[in-house]
Amino acid sequence: MKYLLPLLLLFILSSCAGDDFEVSNEQYDTLLKPTVYPLKADSVYVLNLMTGQPIPPVITTNADTVKPGLPYALVGKHVILSVFTAEQRTKVTELFIENGFQNLAVQSVDKPKSWKITWDKPKAVDKNSHFTNYVLTNSQGKQVQTNVPLKLTGQKSSWKQQRPIPSLPMLLVTNSSANLQLLDVDQGLHSSYILCIMEDSQHNIWFGSYGGGVVRYNGTSFTLFNTGTGLSRDIVRVMLEDSKGNIWFGTTGGGLCKFDGTSFEIFSEPQGMPSDAINDIFEDSQNNLWFGTIRGVTKYDGTYFTHYSVKEGLINESVISIAEDTDGNMWFGTNQGINLLSNGQWFQLNGLPPADEQIVLSILSAQDSSVWFTLAGLGMYQFKNDSIREFTESNGLASAYIWSMIEDKRGDLWCGTSANGVIVYDGYSFKTFGEQEGIPNTEMRSICEDSRGNLWFGTYGNGVIKYNRNSFNHFDQDDGLTNSIARSIIEDKNGNLWFGTSGGGVCKFDGNRFSYLEDDNELSTSTVKSLYETKDGTLWIGTNGIGLFSYDAEYLTHYTTAQGLISDKILTIYEDSDSNLWVGTYGEGVCKFERNAAGQLLAYTLYSEEQGLSHNIAVAIYEDTEKNIWIATDGGGLNKLENGYLTNINEANGLSNRNPITIMQDQFGNYWSGTYDGGINIFDDHHILHLSESNGLVNNMVWSIKEIRDTNKSVFWVTTERGINLIELHCGENGSTAVADYRFKIHEFTKQDGLLGIDYYANSVCIDAKNRIWWGSGKGVEMLDLNLFQISDLTPEPKLNFIEINEQFVDFRNASDSISEFHFEDVLKFANYPEKLVLPYDQNHLTFHYSAIDWSAPHKISYQFRLVGLNENWSTLSSKNEADFRSLPYGDYKFEVRSIGESQKWSSTFSYPFTILPPWWHTWWFRLCISLFVVVILFALYRLRTATLRARQKQLEKTVEERTEELKKKKNWLKKNTKRSQTVLIMPSEFSAVF
User: Fold this and answer.
1) What are the angstrom distances between the C-alpha of 469 and each of 203, 273, 453, 511, 546?
2) % pLDDT > 90, the chain
3) Would you report the helix, strand and coil content of the chain in percent, each value rounded to 5?
4) Does residue 131 register a pLDDT over 50?
5) Fewer CB near the last or first residue (10 Å), C or N of the chain?
6) pLDDT tens digit string along 184-211?
7) Residue 869 pLDDT class (50, 70, 90 cuts)
8) Which residue in 666, 670, 721 sits closest to 693, CA to CA?
9) Mean pLDDT, to the nearest integer, of 40-56?
């Protein structure tokens, strides 16, 4: 019993102690290292390295078995063409097509009209009459003093939060050649009528609307701000984030709203503002805020408001737009012209075009120190060096009504018009994005460029359009192609692009117009599968059924089986370093042509299955740096022709399959071969590796591979049946260029990246002289300007948005009785989760909602999370941006989340600690009470037992005494009776003695 109490105390202390977890910081190497296999030559594989299936032999149509990896002498069949009918040579005409690639064509700017201007100083007002003349009367009849600092007290209200609205993915505008994506009410946007757009310092995009308030968009959800949450009015015309991180909303009818991330502060007419209609908000280089209203302009220095009206020098009280030039002068656009405020003095711009009303809709200070402004119904104007240049519809401007202007990071001007979409001016020409370019609504009220270079257009009726100009462009028959399907693309030495189409012959694009070749040989309606320009400038055209053509810019020469061709179905054309012309056919093998000085075909050598080729369908021909000729066949693997010997390479040597589509050599001399349903094979003389869907390819059907070389690295553009991959090649340690040491980083591009046609054609790829890459797909031609394109290097950092408790949204700032049992410290600004959250035991179902932002590729962001204290392991990678934990036991926890995006770099880990309290029966004091109670009970039992034993002992002693006394009595009785017995015994003896 004496050890019972210490044991109980030890039990209590051990049961109350928690577990400490040390979180390991795992490092992830994002470079892919595929399995490398030996490339066998003298021996063969029995099972396919990729599929694990048995490898059948390659058998030709003549029932001959091809022996892979073993070179043998190849003797071709020589055919002289002069014995056949002479080739047809006709003069052709290029016929032009009027329409062209809409967003490649530009409207050149005629020389704009220009003139000198002067500044007029307004008439001075008697300073002695300040208090009588310097006042404004607002719509409520309240007099507002002007030209003196006033301290206004705003009306404050708390931020009442609603549950964020989940957003659906943006819709790709399919009838546009550009990468335009639509965000409207169908995707969760609050309104289709967008008046202003802004990106904040945390990269959230804000949309202000006509009647729907404001929403903050993080790519996954919308957070609504309206009159129900604290905003003064739901018509928001302008927004700005100031240098202190506050968000200012300029409303129509509700004045100014300042939002500090916690509450709203409203400055309107009752608080001393001259007007409740705010037209513009601007922060100058001195961090002063300027508010343009319909009754003058107001300056706010962080403490005092100063109002200015026509009495100080404004031309008109309605100030629509504000800007600051590079000299620190303030520009104000009004309903009747422009004011300049310089060194405390007001000036009026003299020399604008005469008009009844010179309404200045927007003003912009540009990087080149010029100032741009737009006049309603007249056009746009550039002010520089006291001169004005005028741009009107006569100069190529698509619209004279320009609502808004921004200058992007490259110095281009973007203008939102009232009815003609968006105009962009690069300093030399205009481009217009309107209905022809797929803009669903041409009334653009606002434009914003985000931190990743995307442009956001706010429409009046169709929501928001996001334009990623660094992305893919799409062209089809509506843009000028003779047919939307381009099976072959090349650029000639003059910089013209040629497209071999499916059913539309060939068409040429010279940068402005399309043309096609009109002849009598049905070329204009044929399917062209191959185009090639030889060194002499001749264009060779391979068709699917009507033979081979050559074109020398004037004459078209036609070759068919009648002229000695082995086949009229031409799949590929190639010129080697010795000027031999190689032609691969469908079903008849490969021909190597000899030509005369005029380029006329004289004879050819045929290589087919009969001569030893592994298959008669030749889909690609390539000459490597050692002057070996490679022939890719459909069903017979690769054939390498070296010094008259042919070697077949297929699965038995290590290829993923025997259906190569393309073959090329990278800058390090190693071979890349794309296959039909076998991914990519990369090999050298000793090793081979495979890239497939299992390690990052969009699809295993690889139609083309194009390498772009740099000094120490290469990138490869790969088209597949389901999209495009960009493969970054990284050499091994110490610069090793052996295939066995290759590492990769693979990026994918699908419809969410702006691709309309994701099913491509074999070897239909071209990089032109302007560093643009072109691909032919089943739905048109895709183009990517590599001068503008870049993989995002941003690491999207995850942020916690809000926490649901027991599946209920909680507004922590306005805590009600329903969360009275919660304990926490301050709620973070602009967010809806508290610090140091402590929950009761029965509030143990938590859902964490988080997000990360990368506007370059928001759909490529994925997350991992874990709950330290419950499980140390990270979750599987997922694009889902919530984590749900049910029935959590009590204890201390730390929720952690990290993200990875297109850059394939892990973000830092976001951590959120919280505590779930134990139920009362698991608290230390309850356990202590129970323990003490047990001790008391045991002690009482002990005392009771002791008392019982003592009582029993006394009773026993008494019983012993009684028994002892009884024995004494019996003993005395026995003594007494014993003497009497002795007496009786003696008497008879005595009596006998007598007798």
Assistant:
1) 19, 42, 8, 19, 40
2) 69
3) 15, 40, 45
4) no
5) C
6) 999 999 999 999 999 999 999 999 999 9
7) very high
8) 721
9) 92
- Here the contacts of 476-479 (C-beta below 8 Å, separation 24 or greater) are 476/779, 476/780, 476/781, 477/504, 477/780, 478/99, 479/99, 479/100, 479/101, 479/102, 479/177, 479/780
d(CA 329, CA 341): 6
CA distances to 134, 436, 526, 903 from 730, rounded to whole Å, are 71, 43, 43, 15
CA dihedral 971, 972, 977, 979 (to 10 degrees): 110
Determine the Cα–Cα distance for residues 956 and 961; give it in Å rounded to an integer.
Answer: 9
Residue 919: predicted pLDDT: 84
Lookup: tokens for 42: 């003298």
Mean pLDDT of the chain: 89
Non-local (6+) Cβ contacts of 340 within 8 A are 119, 329, 330, 331, 332, 346, 347, 348, 349
Strand partners, 360: 375
Res. 995 pLDDT band, cuts 50 70 90: very low
Taking the C-alpha atoms of residue 373 and residue 323, their distance in angstroms, rounded to an integer, is 10
853, two tokens = 């932002």
> Cα(905)–Cα(851) distance, rounded to whole angstroms?
16
Measured at the CA of 180, the angle between CA 174 and CA 183, to 5 degrees, comes to: 95
Q: What is the pTM of this model?
A: 0.87
Q: What is the DSSP string of 332-389?
A: EEETTEEEEEETTEEEEEE-PPP-S---EEEEEE-TTS-EEEEETTTEEEEEETTEEE
pLDDT band (50, 70, 90) for residue 243: very high
pLDDT band for 98, please (50, 70, 90 cuts): low
Q: How many residues does the chain have?
A: 995
With CA atoms as reference, report the closest residue to 481 among 21, 79, 102.
102
- The pLDDT of residue 21 is 28
Q: Where are the alpha helices (DSSP H) in 107-256?
A: 130-133
Rounded Cα distance, 545 and 559, in Å: 11
Closest CA to 352 of 297, 327, 315: 315
252-286 per-position pLDDT tens digit? 999 999 999 999 999 999 999 999 999 999 999 99
Non-local (6+) Cβ contacts of 446 within 8 A are 194, 195, 196, 197, 403, 404, 416, 457, 458
Q: At what angle do helices 924-994 and 4-16 cross, to 10 degrees?
A: 160
Distance separating alpha carbons of residues 214 and 274, to the nearest angstrom: 24
Report how far residue 176's alpha carbon sits from residue 475's, in angstroms, rounded to the nearest whole number: 8
pLDDT band at 57 (very low <50, low <70, confident <90, very high): very high
Least confident of 320-334, 346-360, 436-450: 346-360
- How many CA atoms does the CB half-sphere of 279 hold within 13 Å? 27
User: Tell me, what DSSP letter sits at residue 926?
Assistant: H
CB contact at 8 A, 668 and 686:
no
Residues 6+ apart with CB under 8 A from 24: 872
Q: What number of helices (H) and strands (E) belong to the chain?
A: 3, 79
Q: Average of pLDDT values for 546-557?
A: 92
Q: How far is CA 193 from CA 235, 281, 457, 465, in A?
A: 10, 20, 11, 12
- How far apart are alpha carbons 520 and 305 in whole angstroms? 80
CA distance 451 to 428: 25
Q: Which amino acid is at 733?
A: E
The answer to whether residue 11 scores a pLDDT higher than 60 is: no
* Paired residues of 672 in beta bridges: 664, 682
